[in-house]
């Protein structure tokens, strides 16, 4: 990770399993942080590009993406391209106050091909870090939505981040994916040149306590496995989450009535915990204009 002084805190949101709600958590944490006055850069590092879609950014073949940023660094290894990620920063489609506080570094499906080409290349795992160097200074926090694995793209996110945040569902596969992420970081953070990296918290998502398995996992297995690093509240399965994501255009939770407001308040509490754990400071508090 770059050692130059910067104000932003970079958080990789990850799990070694799909379907845990990483993207919805990334987007709704960004919304909660924006409501609290923080400036947020959301990086869509998943080739499915769902974070961008949920922030109401329409796919556009002419839109610069994180794939273009990584490609530029790969093709011009001797050029001074530090901070080139800013060339692909994009406004989100949500209304104020969200569009005043959240900026997107979008993705598209060809990012999968880019990851395949770059995996194993010398220095490739640090290209996102280089691309962000100086480009994210204007933000309070950077949230990186990782793909559901521990491959090249997730490793780029981990190499560039101050901390990881794990999102799991209360299923055995989701718990095992969280443990795999934790163990991977412990075993490989030195290889990523990020020796201080750790999982700062675990968020449990998509909980349905009407099922015996979910009740057991949330009350016994998960607290036992993750202890004090387990954040609350746990996030229940709610229609508002799907409605917000599937609306045309997608909308923030607070636009969806009582159920949406209740979920937004849960994310506000999780955002408060993130702020405390990683020491976020708003631009205003830091005296940044």
Automatic annotation (TrEMBL):
Record field: transmembrane: none
Residues covered by the AAA domain: 9-198
Q: Which domain of life is it from?
A: Bacteria
Read off the CDD domains from this record.
Answer: ParAB_family
Stated name of the protein: ParA family protein
Query: What is the species of this protein?
Result: Nonomuraea recticatena
């Amino acid at each position: 990770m770059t050692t130059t002084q910067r104000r932003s805190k970079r958080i990789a949101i990850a799990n070694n399993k799909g379907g845990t709600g990483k993207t919805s958590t990334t987007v709704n944490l960004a919304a909660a942080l924006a409501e609290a006055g923080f400036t947020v850069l959301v990086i869509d590092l998943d080739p499915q590009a769902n974070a961008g879609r949920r922030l109401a950014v329409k796919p556009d073949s002419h839109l610069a993406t994180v794939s273009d940023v990584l490609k530029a660094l790969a093709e011009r290894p001797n050029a001074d391209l530090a901070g080139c990620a800013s060339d692909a920063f994009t406004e989100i489609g949500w209304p104020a106050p969200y569009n005043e506080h959240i900026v997107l570094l979008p993705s598209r499906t060809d990012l999968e091909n880019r990851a395949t080409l770059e995996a194993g290349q010398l220095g490739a795992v640090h290209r996102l870090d280089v691309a962000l160097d100086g480009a994210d200074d204007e933000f309070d926090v950077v949230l990186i939505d990782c793909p559901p694995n521990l491959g090249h793209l997730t490793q780029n996110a981990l190499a560039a981040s101050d901390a990881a945040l794990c999102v799991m569902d209360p299923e055995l596969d989701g718990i095992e994916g969280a443990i795999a992420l934790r163990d991977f970081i412990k075993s490989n953070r030195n290889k990523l040149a990020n020796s201080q990296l750790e999982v700062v918290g675990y968020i449990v998502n998509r909980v349905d306590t009407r099922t015996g398995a979910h009740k057991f996992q949330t009350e016994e297995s998960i607290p036992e496995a993750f202890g004090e690093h387990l954040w609350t509240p746990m996030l229940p399965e709610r229609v508002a989450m799907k409605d917000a994501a599937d609306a045309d255009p997608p909308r923030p939770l607070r636009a969806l009535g009582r159920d949406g407001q209740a979920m937004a308040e849960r994310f506000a509490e999780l955002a408060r915990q993130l702020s405390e754990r990683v020491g976020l400071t708003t631009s205003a508090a830091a005296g940044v204009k």
